[in-house]
Amino acid sequence: NWEQGRRVPDGPARALLRVAAVDPQAVAVALSA
């Protein structure tokens, strides 16, 4: 995507970044499972 000039994350990536901004601990727990 970066090679195609896209600079804004789409769909699932955007949702993950939103959750990480609100509750980073929840993301850390989910990734460590």
Helix content: 55-70%
Helix count?
Answer: 2
Mean pLDDT: 87
Termini gap: 28 Å
Number of strands: 0
Task: Compute the CA-based radius of gyration.
Answer: 12 Å
**SS strand fraction:** under 5%
How would you spell out the order of helices and strands? HH
How would a textbook summarize the main sheet? none
Which assembly state applies to the chains in this document?
Answer: single chain
Q: So what's the overall shape?
A: elongated
Structural class: mainly alpha
Q: Enumerate the spans where pLDDT stays under 50 for 5 or more consecutive residues.
A: none
Please describe what this structure looks like.
There is one protein chain. This protein is 64% helix and 0% strand. By secondary structure, the chain is mostly helical. The longest helix is centred in the middle third of the chain and has 12 residues, at 11-22. The mean pLDDT is 87.
Quick synopsis:
This protein has 33 residues and is mainly α. Helices cover 64% and strands 0% of the residues.
Salient structural properties:
33 residues; mainly alpha; 2 helices; elongated
Q: What topology emerges from the helices and strands here?
A:
Layout lengths: L10 H12 L1 H9 L1
Helix pairs in contact: 1-2
